[in-house]
Amino acid sequence: MSVKSAKLELFEKMERECNSVDNVADISISHFNKDLSHTSPVEVNWILMCAIQKRCFKIVRYFVRAGIKVGRLDESTQTAIHIAREGYMTQQDRQEILDLFFNIYDHLNYTNDNKLSHFHMACENGNVDMIQRFIDHGVDINQRIVEEFSKDTPLHYAISSRRIEAIHMMLSNGADPNGRIIHDLTPLNRMCWQITVISPENFILFYLSTIRMLLQYGSDVNTQDDNGNSPILNLFQCQPDVCTS
Predict the structure, then answer these.
(1) CATH top-level class for 180-245?
(2) Is the pTM of this model over 0.90?
(3) Cα separation of 234 and 45, whole Å?
(4) Where do the CATH 1.25.40.20 domains begin and end in the chain?
(5) Where are the ANK repeats (predicted)?
(6) C-beta of residue 133 within 8 angstroms of C-beta of residue 96
(7) Which of 64, 110, 121, 175 is the most exposed place for a label (fewest CB within 10 A)?
């Protein structure tokens, strides 16, 4: 039997048995020990990626309950954490499953071909405990991804989580508040621009609080995007009641 067939067979066994119960607590934590004893970290990672692609999140929950970890992989390895952002789940499921994955992969900061790292994903998920752990282990706090239409830093990902505590943790630990991304937008300029495309009742207090925090940590109010607009010019495209808040 080939290695690929063996890991596929194990995944299908896990999928079948996890889906046969309402709660993975009904499965013994040692149930798959014999199977996993012959499985490499690369194969375990593959099984978890399949669990995401097949939307069998019970496998992920079982791994955490049983204390199963992914052994050390090559640093440049695509993991289940990377593909969890590719539309396989709802936002609510994604928040839960990513947090579970950080228990399975620990603090190891694997990156994919686009330099998207586990640290970026912890920031995007607003997981302040994991953000701090990565920082404590010396992660590059300003590492950019290299996707065609995005050069975001971890700070941009933290802002997208809409969790003020995650943003504050990044800024207080030295994240660059003036890092430019696509269209030459700094975090401040992008926040001011985004206010123009949201309604006041949707996260407006978060946006204003984040803008204040960025200013407190040295965001440059005179930077210009590729349209020549400064943050304040982008801000004044919004509704008058927002601009005077």
Answers:
(1) mainly alpha
(2) no
(3) 44
(4) 180-245
(5) 114-146, 150-178
(6) no
(7) 64
CA distance 186 to 136: 26
The three-class DSSP label of residue 117 is strand
Residue 139 to residues 8, 57, 159, Cα–Cα distance (Å): 34, 29, 18
At 150 the three-state DSSP class reads: strand
The CB density around residue 21, as the number of other CB atoms within 10 Å, is 12
Q: How far apart are CA 126 and CA 154, in angstroms?
A: 11
Residue type, 197: V
Query: Do the beta carbons of residue 171 and residue 217 sit within 8 Å?
Result: yes
Task: Output the CA torsion 171→176→178→183 (10° steps).
Answer: -110
**128-166 confidence digits (pLDDT tens):** 999 999 999 999 999 988 776 677 899 999 998 899 999
For residues 115 and 146, the answer to whether their CB atoms sit within 8 Å is yes
Instruction: Please report, for residues 8, 68, 187, 235, the alpha-carbon distance to residue 230 in angstroms, rounded to integers and kept in the order given.
Output: 53, 49, 12, 9
Terminal Cα distance for the chain, rounded: 66
Whose tokens are 């199963």? That residue is 68
Residue 6 has, within 13 A of its CA and on its CB side, a CA count of 12
Q: From 157, 160, 219, select the one nearest 194 (Cα to Cα).
A: 160
Q: Kindly report the backbone phi and psi dihedral angles of residue 88, in degrees, each rounded to the nearest multiple of 5, phi listed first.
A: -85, -5
